[in-house]
Design goal:
Layout lengths: L10 E7 L5 H13 L9 E7 L3 E4 L5 E4 L11 E4 L16 H7 L7 E5 L2 H7 L7 E2 L6 H7 L4 E2 L5 E3 L3 E4 L4 H14 L1 H11 L26 H9 L7 H7 L4 H12 L3 H19 L4 H7 L5 H12 L3 H9 L6
Amino acid sequence: MSSSCAPDRLHRVVVLARHGLLPIEVGIVHRLFGRARDAADRPLYEVLTCGLEPGEVRTDTDFTMNVAHGPEAIDGADTVIVPAAEEDYGQRPHDPLAPELAAVLARVRPTARLASICTGAFVLAAAGVLDGCRVTTHWMSAGPFRAMYPHIHLDPDVLYTDNGRVLTAAGVASGIDLSLHMIRTDHGAAVANEVARNTVVPPHRDGGQAQYIRHPVPEPERSATARARAWALDHLHLQPGLKEMAEQESMSVRTFTRRFREEVGQSPGKWITQQRLDLARQLLEESDLPVDRIAAQAGFGTAASLRQHMHVELGVSPSAYRRTFRGTVPAV
């Protein structure tokens, strides 16, 4: 917790800037940690940016960043944050880790805190520091991450994870959530809440990354269950069951279930629930219908059932989801 006594040395946060970086992720760290103050309005952190070498660093925009510090800035770092960069999106990125990047990470003190934002998790994974940790990364990169690091426990549904010394954030804006979490851990809720208030962001966000994920199902060129799926999508409000779907393909329930799993990769029941949720999410985002009407149209029957399913799958209520994506909540 913060105190009225000035610390002998400010907690140093170093952001590692790589070519092709996302400037917003660097800005998030500087803005939030840089706004943290104690009761006497003294800064609580020193925030620096370093590159693999000092000088100009390319970004994913039409401007560059002039980074004054090289790897030596990491030597005294208490927290090192690795944001995303364009090189994280290639085929099997950082396999193996580039020698110059490995050399920079080797300078991190054993007691320093390490964090990644978005696909910066690929760098930490390649360096071996995520082994045994529960981690996250952007949901669109979850598949490649699992393929490269099947031994690492990836949770693509959450906004951030905290394993003590090692932390990860899901996407660009999740860097805000993670930074506030670290400030809260270091100095308490009052300091973190004041930083959030000054930056005009919520101290906590409801739910996790799951509420942003779309679940498209690829259509096979020759599908034995496509007709049943199309029929089910047209009749979600009637709460179609497994038997009715199998009848659309003139199959037994057992055969239909097996073929469905082969083609879609999940059970018919799980797929139906996901389609109902997707429809409910669409209606919450794009219509002013009350929640009970949305629940009926999406095949949940009652608003209570919809609330329960959204809480389990997305971690938010229908009204909270609507506020997130529309900013308003009509009367229900």
